[in-house]
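Review this fold:
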Amino acid sequence: MAGTIVLPTDESERMFSARTGKVLASLLVAMTIGALLLMLMESEPPRPSESDLAGIRGAVLEETQTLANIWRRVVIHASDGGRDTLPSRCHFIVRSTPDAEGRWITPTGLWRQQTPGQHIYVPGKEFNADSIGVCLIGNFDVTPPSRGQFQALLRLVRELQRSCSIPAEGVYLRRQLHDQPPLPGNAFPVGTFDRGLLRADVK
């Protein structure tokens, strides 16, 4: 009858309640699985294999017969590219996508010539004289680096640590030295990166 309100029966209430319970349970299970996967990804930073390191060693030592005995630190930057001159003032560029030969990393002329760059200014300190500048290409304010780019960066930094005897304490994100702008970006996975660095007990 038009205008008549039909009250739900006990049976319909039970069916609605059961359906709601199933939906909520499924949502809870999905959220739990997602959280566990994120925890596993966060707690297990990517570790480079020996074959990966062999490729990175090629970039580190490319056209460089002898590493200068001046490198004490590594500083990680980021740049959108374009007219920004920062990449050319760093020693290594980590591209947003690999080149035709599958390489993510390009050593600049500064590294090939083993000369200091002009990539960081720290008031009262001369970090450029003994710091290796590594520039990620991309904007990581909202979106983090891709897995491939991040792994390439971590492999490079680990090999620089190994080749130049740089401790984890000597690896900096730019924002740790100069916080404006906060490079390499607010979405950069700081914890995962830090856990992936070589420590005294890691060979």
Q: What stands out?
A: Confidence is low (pLDDT under 50) at residues 32-46, 48-52.
